[in-house]
Design goal:
The chain is of the alpha/beta class. The chain has two domains: 169 residues, Peroxisomal Thiolase, Chain A, domain 1; 144 residues, Thiolase/Chalcone synthase (Peroxisomal Thiolase, Chain A, domain 1). Helix content is 33%, strand content 24%. The strands form four sheets. Strands 1-7-6-4-5 form a five-stranded mixed sheet, with helices on both faces. A four-stranded mixed sheet has the order 8-13-12-11, sandwiched between helices. A hairpin with a 3-residue loop joins β12 and β13. α3 crosses α4. The longest helix has 23 residues. The radius of gyration is 18 Å and the shape is globular. The structure holds acetyl coenzyme *A (ACO).
């Protein structure tokens, strides 16, 4: 068993919805501007009692049910998140306790919006080496708690949610390849200036800050390069890809990557309108939506990709 494959997916979005029309009432923006620039129509907001681990639990239970597995079948939990319940223990440890998996390996990955792809790649490698058989890979975020609701250039773009994938050892791919990148020189383009390591209140407010235009340009360029890298590594043409499952930050960035792949919009899973940018949760949420509504079928070839703070970016080529 030298490969890993996806055997179940699950998603969770909090009940409370904040529409663009709702935002028009609290900041100087319009539904038209938000839709045109980003493709977003609404976002979900975690209730006061909800956290990244509680939302992860809901998504995980749905993925386990889809895979027909029990929590005790899990050998490894990796949670991609930048909004952990606590500084420590990790959200993965809190989730392990919630699910009652037993003493499996559990840790978090911080790669911002690329967190799920990073976690997915790590889990694939744990499975390929034979170290574990069954992995639970999650992206879960309560990013709306890090937003400055007076900053219209950022607060309209993000939402809360969780997505989960169960991966298992397999004789055939499954996962063909994963590709991860980071460039810390761009650390200031997208960040939350909270000086945790200095144990003092930061001078700047600890809210998400983004140079949107710069991030946009780099995202389009690097995601284009990533498509080339993924196709070349597997020696396949663009036409082999059945579905693009992109990070859901901005429809214009998504369509630039689709164009690079020669894919029509009908072959791209786009959920950004419904839940905005949920950071690490967005790729598994889109994957789950495409599987649950029957568009993605067994045997389809999927290209998953994400781009986020760090800057970080990554992709995975997967046979479902
Ligand atoms: N409503 C109305 N007007 C607005 C709003 C708003 N909510 N926000 C900004 N504007 C105005 C600006 O003030 C500006 O006005 P000006 O021309 O008078 O100065 C104008 O709209 C254009 O602003 P831009 O920032 O140039 O708009 P742009 O077309 O670049 O779209 C956006 C902005 C949507 C942020 C885009 O740049 C983007 O999506 N960037 C990438 C985001 C991303 O992918 N991030 C990575 C993942 S996130 C993560 O890792 C956590």
């Amino acid at each position: 068993m030298n490969y890993s494959k996806i055997v179940g997916t699950g998603g969770y979005l909090p009940e409370k919805i904040l529409t663009n029309a709702d935002l028009e009432k609290i900041i100087d923006t319009t539904d038209e501007w938000i839709r045109e620039r980003s493709g977003i129509a609404q976002r979900h907001i975690a209730a006061d009692h909800e956290t990244s681990s509680s939302m992860a639990e809901q998504a995980a239970l749905r993925a386990l049910a889809a895979a027909n597995l029990k929590p005790t079948d899990i050998d490894l939990i990796i949670v991609g998140t930048v909004t952990p319940d606590k500084v420590f223990p990790s959200t993965a440890c809190l989730l392990q306790e919630r699910l009652g998996t037993g003493k499996c390996i559990a840790f978090d990955v911080n790669a911002v919006c690329s967190g799920f792809i990073y976690a997915f790649s790590i889990a694939d490698q744990f499975i390929r080496t034979g170290a574990v058989k069954t992995a639970l890979v999650i992206g879960s975020e309560t990013l709306t708690r890090m937003l400055n609701w007076n900053d219209r250039s950022t607060c309209v773009l993000f939402g809360d949610g969780a997505g989960a994938v169960i991966m298992q050892a397999a004789n055939e791919p499954g996962v063909y390849s994963t590709h991860l990148h980071a460039d810390g020189r761009y650390k200031d383009l997208l960040h939350v200036p909270s000086l945790l390591a200095m144990q003092r209140t930061p001078d700047e407010e600890p809210f998400l800050q983004m140079e949107g235009r710069e991030v946009f340009k780099i995202a389009v360029t690097e995601l284009g390069n990533l498509v080339d890298e993924t196709l070349a590594k597997n020696n396949i043409p663009q036409s082999a890809i059945d579905w693009l499952i992109p990070h859901q930050a901005n429809k214009r960035i998504i369509m630039a990557t689709a164009k690079k792949l020669g894919l029509a919009e009908e072959r791209v899973i786009i959920t950004v309108a419904e839940h905005a940018n949920t950071s690490a949760a967005s790729v598994p949420l889109a994957l789950d939506a495409g599987i649950k509504d029957g568009r993605i079928k067994q045997g389809d070839l999927l290209l998953l990709e994400a781009f986020g703070g760090g800057l970080t970016w990554g992709s995975a080529l997967v046979r479902y």
